[in-house]
Amino acid sequence: QVQLVESGGGLVQPGGSLKLSCTASGEIYSIITMRWFRQAPGKERVFIAGIANSGDTNYSEFVEGRCTISRDHAQRTVYLQMNTLSPEDTAKYYCNADIIRRPDFGWESFWGQGTQVTVYS
User: Fold this and answer.
1) Residue 23, Cβ neighbours under 10 Å: how many?
2) What is the pLDDT along the chain (121 residues), one digit of tens a residue?
């Protein structure tokens, strides 16, 4: 009844850019925080960026200044603009959100199924 759906992944050459999107839908009263993670084959999932309801952002040192996270509250969507991509950025990118489903409920954490980003030359 709550789902996160990522989009925007694909194939890109080194130095290129991509903008990922993640839209939440279903039984949602409020979204507290939305985040992006990534996982390369044979590796653990790692944090990339997050944005709180206040608008405060947090970035992993892995992406330095190459990524920008933003959101559209009305559309329940979080974006990740990625620039100057390198082969090291190749991974499946996952959306994560802390969501309150009802006004009297606490928050729960939800995950999308991921979108693949492949950087190649």
Assistant:
1) 16
2) 899 999 999 999 999 999 999 999 999 999 999 999 999 999 999 999 999 999 999 999 988 799 999 999 999 999 999 999 999 999 999 999 999 999 998 999 999 999 999 999 8
Q: Which residues pair with 76 in a beta bridge?
A: none
Per-residue CA distances from 69 to 20, 21, 31, 78 (Å): 9, 10, 15, 7
State residue 105 phi and psi, 5-degree precision.
Answer: -100, 160
Is 32 exposed, middle or buried (CB count within 10 Å of its CB: 0-12, 13-18, 19+)? middle
In contact, 21 and 94? CB cutoff 8 Å? no
Please count the other Cβ atoms lying within 10 Å of the Cβ belonging to residue 89: 22
Contact call for residues 66 and 49 (beta carbons, < 8 A):
no
Q: How far is Cα of residue 8 from the mean position of the Cα atoms in its chain?
A: 11
